[in-house]
Design a protein that fits this description.
Blueprint: E1 2-8, H1 24-27, H2 31-39, E2 41-46, H3 56-63, H4 68-71, H5 76-82, E3 92-101, E4 107-109, E5 136-141, E6 146-152, H6 182-204, H7 206-213, E7 221-228, H8 236-239, E8 244-247, H9 251-259, E9 263-265, H10 278-288, E10 294-299, H11 301-307, H12 311-331, E11 337-342, E12 346-348, E13 353-355, E14 359-364, H13 378-381, E15 387-390, H14 391-401
Parallel strand pairs: 1-10, 1-11, 2-15, 8-9, 8-10
Antiparallel strand pairs: 2-14, 3-4, 3-6, 3-7, 5-6, 11-14, 12-13
Bound molecules: zinc ion (2 copies).
């Protein structure tokens, strides 16, 4: 028996005026998602607690069965490990953007024209901080304009604030201690020093002169945010003795899965954007499924479309997720596989941000007890037999169906 957990990032939504009061899930053609809901057991799920909007990092850890309020240690380390960097106990990692600052030091473009930061990889491979010789720095461009940074050294803390101001038209911030400890003060000072070093280096980068000559915004700085340490979790593979695989592009999702002890797989044509090839992902899952108990299959695009406020684009990504689930249903042995579909949070296309609304969840498989829900939607799943559950409860529900959860009591 095995489980595929399909996570459509930010797929759930609220009713939208542009869609005649329907949500994108209701407006999309989703024959296969509906088949999972109709044949399976459904419910709605508060990822954290009712009304609390989750970040994707916290949300995915929670879907893996962890208590978000105990295990979460910031996003940076999830992103860095997901990008293939080594982050050990005591290390602190950041995520960041290549960005464009004007001559006054004001942020003009937080993504420097969505520059492909991998062109700077070599150039940033050898960074050292003369004021902190004991601190080892690794800088790694990841997807698009994003990058990950890892600090290794004595007495570091992830409890520091962002340098990234998260908006344009303002100056960058100075990192500060959040909890007032000596470690946090020291790490904030290191982050500020690192920012200055990276800023100097990026200003001098010859590729930026080329970009300026082509009329493109130079990537003349690096905005750091999301300081984090590796999450305080026991791998699911140890906790339940299950073998897990993760098919995802988004570094923070990959990092969460690594913390759970899952093996990571790439899919050709998977981009982490709205143009991703979901069928390629389904094929990878079908190939690795015989070797695993749990496969975490994540598709990012619907969240991007919601942040861009584009309901039509969101519908098109949902329909690609539907086609992916259709491919799975056609090619896996459903008599020995559970397939669960959910979202890591609601992303409102109107507010263009995550909200604290519950998400629909549906589980199809050999021993689930079907209910009256017929469609995979926010409204229909609310009528289902799972009722209203919490995000951290989904993984035990799935593992229990596979007889992997030990008796409590005697
Ligand atoms: Zn998300
Ligand atoms: Zn999002």
């Amino acid at each position: 028996m095995r489980t595929i957990l399909v996570v459509g990032d930010g797929m759930a939504d609220r009713p939208l005026k542009e869609l005649g009061g329907r949500t994108p899930l209701e407006a999309a053609e989703t024959t296969n998602l509906d088949a999972v809901a109709k044949g399976g057991v459904c419910g709605i799920m508060d990822i954290l607690t009712p009304g609390l909007p989750p970040g994707s990092d916290v949300a995915n850890l929670t879907l893996l069965g962890y208590d978000p309020f105990e295990s979460y240690r910031g996003r940076g380390a999830l992103e860095a490990t997901g990008a293939g960097l080594d982050v050990g106990p005591g290390d602190v990692a950041f995520r960041g953007n290549f960005a464009y600052l004007d001559d006054e030091g004001v942020v003009v473009d937080r993504r420097a024209g969505r520059v492909d930061g991998t062109v700077f990889r070599e150039y940033l491979s050898d960074i050292s901080l003369s004021a902190y010789p004991g601190v080892e720095v690794t800088v790694m461009p990841t997807l698009g304009h994003r990058l990950a940074v890892v600090l290794k050294g004595e007495s570091l803390s992830w409890r520091i604030s962002d340098i990234d101001p998260h908006k344009t038209g303002v100056r960058v911030l100075r990192s500060m201690s959040i909890d007032g400890t000596a470690e946090a003060k020291r790490t904030a000072a290191i982050a500020n020093e690192l920012y200055s070093v990276l800023r100097e280096k990026m200003i001098r980068n010859p590729l930026n002169r080329e970009r300026a000559a082509r009329g493109l915004p130079p990537a003349n700085t690096v905005l750091l945010r999301g300081a984090g340490a590796i999450p305080a979790v026991k791998p699911l593979t140890e906790e339940y003795g299950v073998r897990g695989a993760c098919v995802a592009v988004t570094p923070t999702v990959r990092g969460s899965c690594l913390s759970a002890g899952f093996d990571l797989y790439d899919a050709p044509g998977a981009t982490g954007g709205v143009d991703t090839d979901t069928i390629g992902k389904a094929e990878i899952v079908e190939g690795v499924l015989p070797r695993y108990d749990v496969v975490f299959l994540h598709v990012k695009g619907a969240d991007n479309a919601s942040h861009d406020g584009d309901p039509r684009l969101k519908i098109s990504v949902i329909e690609k997720i539907d086609a992916m689930v259709g491919h799975l249903l056609d090619n896996i042995a459903i008599e020995e596989t559970y397939i669960a579909v959910t979202a890591d949070h609601t992303t409102s296309t109107r507010t263009r941000d995550h909200t604290g609304d519950p998400v629909p969840v549906a589980i199809l498989g050999p021993e689930v007890i079907p209910d009256i829900a017929e469609k995979y939607s926010e409204q229909d799943c609310a009528r289902g037999g799972l009722g209203r559950i919490r995000g951290k409860e989904l993984m035990p529900i799935l593992l229990n169906l596979q007889d992997k959860v030990e008796l409590y009591g005697s």
